[in-house]
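Q: Hi! First time doing this. I have a protein sequence and I read that you can turn it into a structure. Is that right? Here it is:
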Amino acid sequence: MVTERPQSPRVKEPAGASSQLDQVAKGVNWGVMSIVLVVCFNTVSPLLREATKGARGKDFRMNPNTVMFLEEILKYLITLGCLVFVELQGRGGGDPREGPKGNRRARWPGLQDIMGLLQIDRESARTFMPFAIPAFLYSIQGALLWACLRYMDPASYQLMNNVKLFMTGTMQHVFLGQRLTVRKQQALVGLGFGILLGQWTGSTVGKLWQLSPKAYALSLMCSLVSSTSSITLKYLYKERSSFNEGNMWMYGFGAFFRFFPLVKSVGGLGGLHTMLDGFDSVVLLMLLVSTGAHLFTAAVVRFHSPLTKSFCTATAMPTTALLSFVLFHQTRSLQYIVSLPIVCFSIVRYATAGESVPDSPWKTLP
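A: Yes, that's right. Below is the predicted 3D structure, encoded as structure tokens:
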């Protein structure tokens, strides 16, 4: 268990002293808000990645390893800021700017306080070292994701991304002992039929499927790694009490794992000055949106379930298909259009089937 840091006595606030921001925050359903934001971010993210492709349509005009490395750095800094904010709230219990006896600077953290949050001792290392496992898996998934987008458009990627529901359901059945109900099995059959229909070209001769075998292989590997990392991360969140501190360790490990592919891609340490080549406003926007998508996805995994995460990312499929047609004039086949309601209905049916083990600790948190 994580040892608690000593906290100063909470200062009692007078009645009605809470700010308007606190009142608004209490009225917001942050669980629903995080789900909505995950859907929005996962809709926009593949579209922005498509916009960063070069003239040949496969190669990106910037270095994807740079984007993945900077994502981890941004997530680490944002999580550290959340830890500092929680520390301030724990000390004062109110407005962090107002210290005891009118001293408005008494509770602002100094460099020593921030370094205390970053202090690594034997107990914290033993507690949070397992977060290196999902960090390593997410690093692999990131590389596979960028490889997938070289061979498929955003709408096809979103359709194939639903395969992770198969992976997640199978892993929960194998490793967590949760039996797949008849309703969930029917939903998976409908989902598989919808995916196959959406990828069928409609021709019985020549090319039968929309994508190349390499694209399908990369997509399947990406779904497998994503499901494995989600299950692992959910277990670690259950066993550790500090959500932000666990994330900070995971993002730190992620930056470490993604630094070496970055160095290799630029030709060694001497080529790091070229890591930002090709960056522009679109790439910067994509970096920020992708970072937000990962942060809110981690919140959904923590406070809901891996299946809720898969449901969120899959819900973005129809909007991505529509926007890819509007922005990039990527037309869709009749089979793909027919497959959309089948896939969406199957996803909703699967997500609303309920848990087969009512007392399972893996069920969605309230």
